[in-house]
Design brief:
two-stranded parallel ribbon, alpha/beta, Rossmann fold, 12% strand
């Protein structure tokens, strides 16, 4: 059963998003000096902090490490729906930086005032992420990047890779608790899309939700020639206890460049629901292993 607390908080996030104002073109202020927030151990704490300080960055992100990280490729972290860089990655980003990675991240999708993002058309989001990756490559001198996406952040890159030529820019793509086969939310989103006016309502308020529903035009586009492409290493990380994204929605078809990982295969007792995924030590250990399978530890025992 889906966590009641998760549903309530998600509803509050959506309600808050709808009430926020979109920035007008040309109204952006000059960028302020980066503010780095504390490392958080859980998702509710990170969300609360990001609401109090929407401009906060996770430690280790966007530090401008140039080509001196000691790693061949920088890592681009992509947030889930409604959240922001800090709320999603306040724990994982500093761990990746401590492991020697040059870590970058952005808030993409509908640009709004405040802490909530990733609500816009997924095709436009994919193009925005592609431009950001170009900037990261130019800044670091890297030929390719690795991408780690959580939830929606692991769904958008399929359009970038499959439709916009992003396969030439991405070496390893790690999709964490991501509904790349389309999301049903236990049938609720599919039902909403079918009721009169339901899809129009989603398109008007949260286009990302309309794109992410099973059998949407977006989902058909990214899968029409198969979900994967040669030259990209794909890793999915899923939890049997996700309660939002079903296991069947978050795993790729088998292939020579595909590795599907389930958290409970490494930590059987782990009760890792969707919001907790990017804050779980085993998940972070699996991300590190996906990025560097030759040397990184496969799991972090502390969470078991």
């Amino acid at each position: 059963m889906v966590s009641r607390g998760y549903l309530v908080l998600s509803a509050l996030l959506v309600a808050g998003c709808v009430g926020l104002s979109v920035q007008a073109p040309g109204s952006a202020q000059p960028p302020a000096a980066p503010r780095y927030g504390p490392i958080q151990e859980n998702w509710p704490g990170a969300v609360a902090y990001s609401i109090s300080d929407p401009g906060a960055l996770p430690q280790g992100m966007n530090t401008g490490c140039g080509g001196n990280s000691g790693r061949e490729r920088p890592v681009v972290l992509l947030n889930g729906a409604f959240l922001n860089k800090y709320a999603t990655w306040s724990k994982a980003a500093p761990k990746l930086a401590a492991a020697g990675y040059c870590v970058f991240g952005l808030d993409y999708g509908t640009r709004i005032d405040g802490p909530f993002h990733q609500m816009g058309d997924l095709r436009r989001s994919a193009a925005e992420i592609g431009r950001f990756i170009d900037t990261v490559k130019a800044r670091t001198g890297a030929e390719k990047v690795d991408v780690v996406g959580y939830s929606e952040g692991g769904m958008v890159p399929f359009y970038l890779i499959n439709e916009l030529g992003g396969h030439t820019d991405i070496h390893t793509f790690v999709a964490v608790a991501s509904p790349m086969r389309g999301m049903s939310f236990y049938g609720m989103l599919e039902w909403l899309a079918k009721v009169p006016g339901g899809r129009a309502l989603m398109n008007a308020t949260v286009p990302a939700a309309a794109d992410g529903v099973k059998n949407s035009g977006y989902m058909r586009e990214i899968a029409r020639n198969g979900l994967t492409r040669p030259g990209v290493n794909y890793v999915t990380i899923s939890s049997r206890n996700d309660r939002v994204v079903a296991l069947s929605e978050s795993m790729l078809p088998p292939g020579p460049n595909v590795t599907n990982v389930v958290v409970q295969d490494h930590c059987p007792a782990a009760d890792v629901f969707h919001g907790r995924v990017p804050y779980d030590d085993t998940v972070i250990g699996l991300i590190l292993h996906a990025l560097d399978p030759a040397t990184a530890a496969k799991r972090v025992v502390a969470s078991c």
